[in-house]
Design brief:
- This protein is of the alpha+beta class.
- The chain has a single domain, classed as Clavaminate synthase-like (Double-stranded beta-helix), CATH 3.60.130.10.
- The chain contains eight helices and 15 strands.
- The strands form four sheets. The chain has a seven-stranded mixed sheet, with helices on one face. Strands 12-6-14 form a three-stranded antiparallel sheet. It has a three-stranded antiparallel sheet with strand order 8-7-11.
- The longest helix has 15 residues.
- It is globular.
- The protein binds N-oxalylglycine and manganese (II) ion.
- Manganese (II) ion binds next to loops.
């Protein structure tokens, strides 16, 4: 049986039925998922029962995986999950929720700002695949904003103004916005800014979209306050409710989103409750802008 997809978001986001992701992915269904991603940008699968190994296998059957090394404040000895998983939970390695003042938790609050995954890497991410193994009693939705519809809705002058602009992205910029400013020298080196185009064309559909992210902290050649305001203004425009799908998580949900044409953010939830979210990520095809040597 081939999968079926029903639109659930305002201008994007689809819900997929008819597939058990724990089973090997058939070439037909892999193709249908890629086609669905090109059409909807966010796909929701309910009722999945996946071990880490099965999530990895599913991910790899969609394309090359991105390494998660060096992107969080978790030490290697702190790992709950196999390599190449981004542990997006609020749990330590004994599966206990972080204390409210834990540095790893405070850093992760950065995920509550609108962003696109790995926009701080020279080759940013393609799809993110997030699986919910335990959910909270209230809050904790993930919201997605359609950057293609947002681009389309910009007026002519604004489109022209954005064309050709290059932004610098770093996790230091996103954390700075929340007053998280203490980084070690090693972390500053690891989180060095990278360059990304502000407008990008989608590798498969050719459609243009805004490439925004809270990691973007400057525009090459612009004074910083002007750049920050310009980017903030664009984010405000691009995240109006008409462009947003809010996902309320149920146990066993798996959501795939295309970082090349969406932003997302986590919503707050009770910190003492376990929210076990496991992300695998597909590598993007190429840099969006030349890097400085
Ligand atoms: C992520 C992320 C949001 C959430 O996995 O990249 O930003 O709601 N997650 O946990
Ligand atoms: Mn994210």
């Amino acid at each position: 049986m081939p999968i079926t997809i029903r639109q659930i978001g305002p201008c994007f986001a689809g819900e997929v039925a008819g597939i058990d992701l724990a089973q090997p992915l058939s070439p037909e269904n892999a193709e249908a998922i890629h086609a669905g991603m090109d059409e909807y940008a966010v796909l929701v699968f309910h009722g999945q029962q996946l071990k880490a190994k099965q999530q990895l296998a599913f991910t790899k059957s969609l394309g090359p995986i991105e390494t998660s090394l060096g992107t969080s404040l978790r030490a290697e000895t702190d790992r709950r999950l196999p390599p190449n998983f981004a542990d997006v939970s609020n749990l330590d390695k004994d599966n206990k929720p972080f204390a409210v003042d834990d540095r790893r938790r405070l850093f992760a609050i950065g995920n509550r700002l609108w962003h696109s995954d790995s926009s701080f890497k020279p080759v940013p991410a393609k799809y993110s695949i997030l699986y919910a193994l335990s959910v909270v009693s209230k809050g904790g939705n993930t919201e997605f904003a359609d950057m293609r519809s947002a681009y389309d809705a910009l007026d002519h002058d604004r489109k022209e103004q954005c064309e050709g602009l290059i932004c610098e992205h770093s996790q230091i910029f996103s954390r700075q916005q929340l007053g998280f400013t203490e980084f070690t020298d090693e972390e500053r080196e690891r989180f060095k800014p990278v360059r990304q185009s502000l407008i990008r064309s989608h590798p498969s559909t050719g459609r243009k979209s805004l490439y925004l992210s809270s990691h973007a902290g400057s525009i090459v050649g612009w004074p910083v306050p002007e750049a920050r305001f310009f980017l903030r203004d664009l984010v405000e425009f691009a995240t109006q409710r008409e462009f947003v799908y809010s996902h309320k998580w149920e146990l066993g949900d798996l959501v795939i989103w295309d970082n090349q044409r969406t932003m997302h953010r986590a919503r707050p939830f009770p910190p003492e409750e376990a929210r076990d979210m496991r992300r695998t990520t597909l590598a993007g095809p190429a840099p969006t802008a030349e890097q400085v040597a």
